[in-house]
Amino acid sequence: MELLWHIQHGTDTDAQTIFSRLREGDDPSAILGPLGTKAQRENASTESAAVPHSRPLHTHTKQHIDLATSDKLIGHPDLSDSATLSATLRSQGDVLTEAFSIFLKCTSSIFHVYTQEEVDALLSKSLETDTQTPLSTLCEVCAVAAVGSRFSRSRISPELGEYYSSVTKQLLDECIEKTPLQAVKVCALLAMCNIINKATAAFAYVELGLGVARIKGLLERTPHAHMDHSIWLESKKVVKSLLACRGWLQATLSYIPETEPPVRLEDVDGGDQCCLDCEDQTLYQTQVARLTVIKAGIFQQMRSIEFSKESSEAIRLSLSQWLDQVPEHIRLENLGKPTVSPEAHISGLYLHSFYLGSRMLVYRWILSWIIQIRQEGIVPPPETKNESSRCADEGLIAAKESVVTLWNIYEGGGAVRHCWLCIFQAYLSCCIILHDVLQRALHGQSTAHLDNLELASRSLEVLAWTGQLDATAKQYHASLSPIYALATSLSVQVGESSPNPANEHVHFRVTNGTSPLHDAARKLSQMLYVALKPEQERERTVSVY
């Protein structure tokens, strides 16, 4: 449990060290040595347990619930006994009710952790006055509240959300010991809390949750003899959410440990025959988990295999096969039919947004490969020209379709300001579209492509909206807005194009020059670049593209 304490209270560097060395099979006592003991570091961790340094506090409005600033809550939580913590949580009844309500609304359709009945039962237990609520249950209560508060920061202050998160982390060992199946749920929620700004910590919680799940047999095709089948099926849904978080972190944040064991599609599909005959909510959750496993596999291949016609075709085939097996009634073209409920419509749009993100990942792969081999003075082999151009064209189409899909989610009231999918899809699609506009302008192509700027403006609007509450979204918006402003001022070719191989796709052409347009094009290339080399070789900057 000493290692768990360092994950809970230590720095991001500590989490990275623990995560890497555990995966390498190091002895726990050897890992702890350089980190120091819990007693040595506890005082230094008191404040960071409540407010992580990597996420500055937002400015608050009068809409925040008044009790959010109670002296009892802001600071180190009192976990001396369950009665004290229960009393503190009961005093926050209105806040908990709000957080629990928004939690279900914003997470349940795609990422299953708790059912409506389970959430209602947890809330009821947290507000009871005549019973002794176990600390493991209070850990679950605070985990749900921590995630819910992140989706409702206009009413619940960030400080209070960090309080709930701090309590959850400190009680996690109690939950693992007393109720391990519930601890898997808590790990999934802690991963969601950290997934945008603390990727390594999120990975640590995902791996911890999957480790407990593996011990309890939740990654098997059939349940252990001592486990009720219905409980096993319910727990498998949570495992799918953990796998989805892991796959998304790997692919979108370009983060895969070198020793990462592969996750098989069978791990996702087990027990429900790929959920082809199950209810829509479970169907969406399974399809998202399947897609993120495929997406993580794509990134694994990107890291281990040089780009070639064969490797690219294999990746595109895996995505096409996923799309082909999607049930007819949740295909993108059928989601707008009157028979589809608003909830199913939004869930389906999120699902296909995941798919389009995978297509954009392939685009980033080929662009990054071109950048990398140019840094090494290598000319792309002629046999890759047609395939790389096809990837570029499909990536641009995916970016434009992604904006349309995300805009429909946004206008339909299904977007969430602190949702990592909304934020990163808006960011990546905007980068690709602006990259297309600037590259074509630099190389003298028709200005008809400027029509795509309307789509870029929609991505920026979503980023501006999410950026009102999320620091990462705000940073992305600030990075892209000046480039968008420059692109909107274009009407004719600017500057002279650099020499390029005949018939090379415009997205891959060199943009030598010192004008603001050249600088912006190079910056977009840097934003889209995915490191394809091992960790020790990734320090090189993008200087020749």
Automatic annotation (TrEMBL):
Keyword terms, alphabetized: DNA-binding, Nucleus, Transcription, Transcription regulation
Transcription as UniProt keyword: yes
InterPro entries attached to this UniProt entry: Fungal_SecMet_Regulators (IPR051127)
Domain of life of the organism encoding this protein: Eukaryota
GO MF annotations in UniProt: DNA binding
Protein name (database record): Transcription factor domain-containing protein
